[in-house]
Every structure is written in C-alpha cells, then in structure tokens.
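B., you asked whether I could sanity-check this one before it goes into the benchmark set. Here's the sequence:
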Amino acid sequence: MSLQDIKIKLEYRSLLNNIASEFYIPALQEAVSYDRAVGFFSSSILSSIAYGIDGLARNGGKIRLVTSPYLSDSDKEAIKKGYEQREDVVKRIMLSNLHEPQNYFEQEQLNMLANLISDGILDIKIAFTEDDSQIGMYHEKLGIIKDSDGNCVAFSGSMNESENGLSVNYETIDVFCSWKSDIERIKAKENAFEAIWNNTEPNIIVLDYPEIKSEIISKYKRNKLDYSKPPVHYKELVKSMISGAKVPDNFKFHKYQEDAINTWAEKGYRGIFDMATGTGKTYTGLGAISRLNLELRGHLAVVIVAPYQHLVEQWVEDIEKFAMKPIIGYSASCQKDWRKRLENAIRNQKLKVKGAEFFCFICTNATYSSDFVQDTLDKIKGDCLIVVDEAHNFGSENLRVLLKPKFNYRLALSATLERHNDDEGTQSLYNYFGEKCIEYSLEKAIDNGYLTKYKYYPVFVNLTDNELAEYYSLTKSIRQCIKKGKNGKSTLSERGKRLALKRARLVSAAENKVYALRDEIIPYQNDNHILVYCGAASLKDFHSDTYPVDDDEIRQIDVITDLLGNQMDMNVSQYTSKEDIEERKIIKEQFAEGEILQALIAIKCLDEGVNIPSIKTAFILASTTNPKEYIQRRGRVLRLYKGKEFAEIYDFITLPKDVGSAFSATESEIHMGLGLVKNELKRAFEFARLADNYVEANIKLDEIREVYNITESLEDFEEEFECYDD
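And here's what the prediction gave me:
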C-alpha cells in the first residue's frame, strides 16, 4: 500500500472526524518520514497515534519535530534584562517540564518517546521567535508525511500535537496530496519546514538541545520497544477511539473462526461462512463485523437480517456483547420507535455527526422485505455491510432480488447454503456474496471437540391401513399432475404441488409415531433435557379421550403434549412461535435448570438458529428429506453443555408397511412406496454415519434396505416431485 490507497479527505474537523483513526494512523503506517512543526507538543499524543508510529518505525522511517517552549512573562523579562541567556532559559524550561508520570499510560507514553529518541527515529528541535530583544512562541502548525513511493501529504491548521488537540479541542486541518495537483502548495510547505529545521528562517531561532534529549532517555526509558509488535494497550487505545463493533476484551476465537475472518478480509470483506450448526457462526460473524469496523475506523453501516423474531432477539444478546447498540426492527420489537431510530441513524451518519459514524440495524426477513425498510436503506451513503443469517432463505425468488449492490461489503452465514432442489437459487447466493471463506463440517466439529458426540437410534414406524391407502391415492394423483415445460423438463402443476405437500404432512404426522414415542420415552420418563420435535402437521381421526370425536384434525404437537404431560405425568412445555419473547426466555431457563421442566415439545422454530445447548436426548418425529432441515435439527442437539458427555437422537422413520407385511406387497405397491423408503433411509444413513454407535444403527437400516431390495447408493437420491415441508 501507499498513501494513495488511503481515503484522505481535504479537511478534518475534530468534532466531526476522528483525526487520529481517520488520518494520522493510516497515513503514518505507510510513511517513511514525518516532519512536524508545531507550537505545542505533548507525549500524550503518542497513545493516540502509536499504531501509526509503529508502522513508520517498521518502514525504517524518521520523524523530525520542531516545537516551542512555553515562556512565562518572568522568563521573557529575565532574557530581556540579560539575567539569563535565551538558550539557558529555554533549556531550563524544557527540563523543568520533564515531570514524573502520573499513571501507567503516561509512563508508557513517555517510555515510547524515549525509545523513539534513543533509536534515532525521532529528532526534536526547539523553536522560538526573536525581534528587538523580544522573545515569543513559535506558533505555526504544519506537517508533511511521505511514503517510499514518493507520495507526499502536507497539512496545516489549528491543531497542536497533543491528545487535547486531537479529541478535546475544536480544531481543524487542511490536507494537500501530491497526486491531487497540490504539488506547488506541498513544495512550499516542504521549503518552509526545511528552512525552520536548518535555522535559516528569518526571525525564528531553532536550537538543538542534545542534553534535553539525553535527559528524556535517562528519565523515561524503561524497556526497549519492539516496533513489530505494538504493545497491546496501544491497540486497545486505538480500538477505544473507534465507535461501533469491538471484540470483547476477554473473548477468544477458535483458530478456525480466526481463519474464517482473515479469509473474509482477504477476499475484500465478501464471502460465506459455511459452518455446522453449533460451531459459533454468530460469534464468527460478529468478529468479522468488528474486523471490518476497525479497518474502516468506525465508519460503517451494518444491516443484519435473520429469518425470525426469536433469532433476532438471540442475535441482539450477542450483538450487545460486541459494544453495539442495535436498532431492532420487526413488528413486535421492544423498540416501538425503531423506524424513527433507523431514519435518524442514516441521516446522522450522512451528515457526519460525531459519534454517529457507526450504526447497526437488525431485522427479520419479513421486515427487511418491507417497502419502508428498503426505501430507508437506499438512503445510506458510504460503506455498508449486509450480514444474512441462515442465508439459504435468500436464494428464493422473492428475497434474492432484495440483495442490493449498494452493500459493498457482504457476509452470508449458513450451515446449509445449498438450497434443496434449487440450483438457480443457490447460484444466486454465490453470485452475490462470493466464495466460501470456511467450510467447517459437523464431522470436523465433533472430531475437534467443538460439538458433542452422539448415539443414533432409528425407530421404524409404518403407516396405518387408512394412511397407506391415502398415501397411494395421493401418489397416483401427483403423477397425473406432471407436465412438460418448454425446456422439456418435467414440472408439477400447482394442484400437484398441493398434493405433494399434503402427502408429506401425512408422512410426518403418521399416527403410529405417537405410540412408538410412548414406548421409546418410558426409560427417560424421570430424566430431563429432553426435546421432542414434531412436524407442523395434524393427525386425522386420532383416538383419544382428551379430544372430541368430531375433531378430525388435531395437531401432532398437541397430541404429544397430552401424552407426555397428562398421561405420563412429565413436566413439559411447548416451544413454538406462539410464545412471546419473555415466555421463551423463561422456558429456556427452566429447561436448562432441569428441575421444573423436563422436556420441550417443539416444531419449526427450532430449525434455524435457536440455541438450547442443554438438550441431551431428542426424539425427532418430523420427517423431512430436506438436508437443510435435518442437518439443522441434528446440530441443535450436539451443542456442548456442562455435564453432557454425549447426546442421543431417536429418529422416527416412516415406512409404508412393517417389515413383515412388506414381503407380501404387490409390485405396484412397492413401486409407489419405494420413494418414501429411500428418502427416509437417506436421512437415516446420514445420521448414522457420524454416530458413535454407527455399526449398530447401520445393521438396523440395512434390514430395511434388504427388505425393499435397495442396492444403489442413497446419497444423491431424490424422489421426483417429493415435497417434505414440516
């Protein structure tokens, strides 16, 4: 890099700009020389610009500083009357200002000053004016920064070389760049400085005091600095000057998370984090935001989008740990005025109001899609980052059109970016976000100890006679809805799609799953940290004394709640989108404690993002052939938790007939039911593959494969027009 690669403004004002982070530090990092003539110098500035000075030192650069002593009236009178020579007065004043450091930071500032002098990086001369026996302060303020390519930046203005000058006083500097046709003005500044430094400027006396520099070294040098490794506190001081996202002091990323962030930065702050559920996607994403924010010196608009309200709230908890105060946008937001907050944040950033350089807005997919949010976000000026959680959702036709080019920085988070049966949607995500910066699989996470090991138990459940008859009937009707598209590819009519969804829900809500669950959960009746995952489907004609006979559509989750809560006397609670934020928070807390609440009975809302690491045993009733869904569900159960040595997964696998009856099925019946069997086994073999008891699990699965005479690999199997949407 060079000075030309830095975004340098024509003017900086201390109440509107962070002059240290926006100008000094990035410029000095590229510099090989820094000439500064200033009325007042304080070592306090070193804390603010240390990160830049370290860069200059690594470049083999030099600093030449001309400053002026403060002369009291008595000092001036002593010189005028000849009591002391002017050189002696100046030396006395300068030496008297070498006070003891008042705190740790001042001690380190002065240590750095002493090191810069002793290492020959910094040379200081003292200037004052003299005219007709009158002596005064040299009050000019100019600076010149050069890089190794010959680029030059000159600046002048009201600002002294001190911490107060940078951040407390209202100061301004004008900046001139050699590559912007400011050559003559820069040359004039260079000539002026050289004349001052060489003591050839009329009416200005410039003296070199080796004894003052020696005293600084003797008094303040405590240890030698390694300029290649800036002291941590300097970095932290620089970070503290920047508004917005910061990594918490005590937070440590895993190496794979650091690698992901670094790769994202190398790819121009665009890319995809493909990380298994439970491996810290959210924290890695927040680390990425913090990295970019540091790079841009706190001048950044961040938009985070998550599918559901409960995920937004979960994000908010983590966002706040990273020093951000997000604007929370969705219909039931606790910030009732979030729309006004968003408008104000964008306006203030545009007007360059100090302290408003950074803002973070988080919302649901639905809120992001609204006309208000789209129109408002279009008003953002400057650098902006979009972070999309569970980014596979944005491959859909209605959402991908909202991925706007105005976001020059982009990050997608997903454990399953590839969209099921939607290559076009998947490719659109890659086209927008860029390449994967990390692929951290479930297998790797388990092997490395970042997810818990698990045991897998397939539970075979057959359809009832009535369900099977309806399944066959629906399958025949679906086949009649197949039509050829213009490209010759077979498609399904709208009626066919509705029928496929109905068939999928029939499989998910198979009546015999309830009876099978009752048998399987008995050994866990007195345990806790149990999850029962239901499909978003209803059971027809379910025989229970709890429900009226004429109610032929009973939600599976309600049947299971009645079974466990009333019939088996377990302490259970539903966990769905119907519970509000506070209710879900209480439920999660009670579930984690394990004393009041034994089991959660959940549906869709656990598919994406919800973090309940205490789950130890899961009974999965919901059938799905969508890898995105079943991979997410498995990951929910594998999060690490204190005292959780391993997890257990019971997967209820729906078959057309029981093993014994399958042998007597007709060829037509076997053919119509074979797609169901293959889809169910495909999921089961994936679950079994990484299980600690994979041998035992595979033996059971191979029995079904043998019964149905399935010899081919199921890895890539997809039944045409299958639709499993729990």
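One thing to flag: Confidence is low (pLDDT under 50) at residues 231-235, 541-553, 720-726. Otherwise nothing jumped out at me.
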